[in-house]
Amino acid sequence: MLCLSRKSGESIVLPNQDITITIQKISGNRVCISFDAPREVAIRRSELLPHCAQATESVDTDELYRMMGTE
Q1: Is residue 14 predicted with pLDDT exceeding 70?
Q2: What is the 3-state secondary structure (H, E, C) of 11-63?
Q3: Rounded distance, CA 47 to CA 38, Å?
Q4: By residue range, what is the domain housing residue 37?
Q5: Rounded-to-integer distance, Cα 71 and Cα 69, Å
Q6: First-to-last CA distance in the chain?
Q7: Is 6 inside any structural domain?
Q8: pTM for this model (two decimals)
């Protein structure tokens, strides 16, 4: 694992993935982080991963395509 220290306003760039992570604000023990990434890159908070996995498994893609009229 790579661990980097950043100050408010500083960024980390993943050039091969076209992703920039910027520290927007630090206030006490809270950090506001922004992610600039391609639309197809999923970014999730770790505590939501189990919920997101369950939601993804329950999606009926055929039904979604029918609803959008793009069967």
Answers
A1: yes
A2: EEEEHHHCEEEEEEEEECCEEEEEEECCCCCCCCCHHHHHHHHHHHHCCCHHH
A3: 22
A4: 11-68
A5: 6
A6: 43
A7: no
A8: 0.65
* Strand 11-14, strand 30-36: pairing: unpaired
pLDDT value, residue 48: 80
Among residues 15, 5, 32, 14, the alpha carbon closest in space to that of 23 is found at: 32
Q: Which of 19-23, 39-43, 63-67 is least confident? A: 63-67
The answer to the question of residue 4 being in a domain is no
The verdict on residue 16 lying in a domain is yes
Total count of domains within the chain: 1
Band of the pLDDT at 70, cuts 50, 70, 90? low
